């Protein structure tokens, strides 16, 4: 820092910054102002974007896409086998199944998951499978074999109805692939850390067909900075992974058929009022996730806890079969406006509770879709009630805004939340201003009230033999 005549400190002159690596054209513009006066263009930082690194980015993208396909193939195959259907939604298949079949399938899922995770943790002690913790720490290596085992088990139990997110497996495998490739290529620890972050975002992008959202997930959440040296490899990796995943997964939006909702004044006013409330709810949800993570079943108790937790979910599912699985179909109902207040309101309370119950049993899985679906049904329910006093927008529009606000607040990543909702629905562009209003206020409130996210809340005090 330099000091002026009055003794006050001022930042160094931006024109004196040096680009690293230097540009090919060294001569400045006639103004004399330097390109490095834009802070995100100064240099690559610790992770040099070398030709070898770019090759590994492309390879990581391909690996993330292929593993995304594999994880979804496992998930869909198990769903179809467990509930006896070949087309349509999981929600419809679960609704057609008998109560006995629902409970039996979940009990089998719990017995399988408990035994499989227990054995995996026992025979791979000390091996790292927490991509968030690794990337945010010193960038240590992820265990490929344990990551693969954790991911496969997770997709199997989700396919059988466990209320946890499906995205954690492809996210983890993208990061584990990056860790393995970084070792083969002899990349530096900083390059490996960035590559693992790119792989994690790419895994998310691949299974949800959200290349921009995956790149922002890498930059805003995993790396905590949106600069050129982060954004460029993040976009490349997520784009390659998404295109690769088209070998098996569809190219359309995850939630097709969502109408192109229009802006209305009642919706904007609702967004400004609902945003802070959603932020408070998100804070409570995050705290709940953190508490159950810290008190999750361990040791021999983890052998039997999943069966008990999944069995309770099966009993609740007598009345609300929408709770089975990660919540994708539940969110779709809210976006399309096919569910009423009497269904949406209890689902908004029950989905976080059964998800926490499953995670507290020691199950490994994600939180992305359960969080999104909670925001969607909460927004839809509140929107229906609001429309009784001030009509003007359909319930689906409120659901889209509520989902964006809940994602932004719960992830503490408003840009990522907004981009994901636009790509997931392809119908939210007309709602951008209400979405921004709700997401900004919800995230501000959640940040001020607590500050944790659904990812930092799950960080453990010690490795404890778990893969998340």
Descriptive overview:
With 468 residues, this protein is an all-alpha fold. It has 2 domains: 51-245, Clc chloride channel (Orthogonal Bundle); 265-458, Clc chloride channel. Helices cover 64% and strands 1% of the residues. It has 17 helices and 2 strands. The protein has helices spanning 51-83, 90-96, 99-123, 131-136, 144-159, 168-185, 189-208, 211-223, 228-245, 265-294, 301-316, 328-336, 341-360, 368-389, 395-411, 414-425, 432-449, and strands at 2-3, 9-10. The chain has a two-stranded antiparallel sheet with strand order 1-2. Helix 1 packs parallel to helix 7 (189-208). It is globular, with a radius of gyration of 23 Å. Residues 1-9 and 463-468 have low confidence and may be disordered.
* Widest beta sheet: strand line-up: 1-2
Q: How many β strands by DSSP? A: 2
Give me the strand/helix succession: EEHHHHHHHHHHHHHHHHH
Distance between the termini: 43 Å
Which class of secondary structure composition applies to the elements? mainly alpha
CATH-defined superfamily of the largest domain: Clc chloride channel
What global shape is seen? Answer: globular
- Compute the CA-based radius of gyration: 23 Å
How much helical structure, as a percent, in the residues?
55-70%
CATH architecture of the largest domain: Orthogonal Bundle
Q: DSSP helix count?
A: 17
Strand content: under 5%
Low-confidence stretches: 1-9, 463-468
Please give the largest β-sheet: 2 strands, antiparallel
Q: What would the CATH topology of the largest domain be?
A: Clc chloride channel
**CATH C-level class of the largest domain:** Mainly Alpha
Number of domains: 2
Q: How confident overall, as mean pLDDT?
A: 92
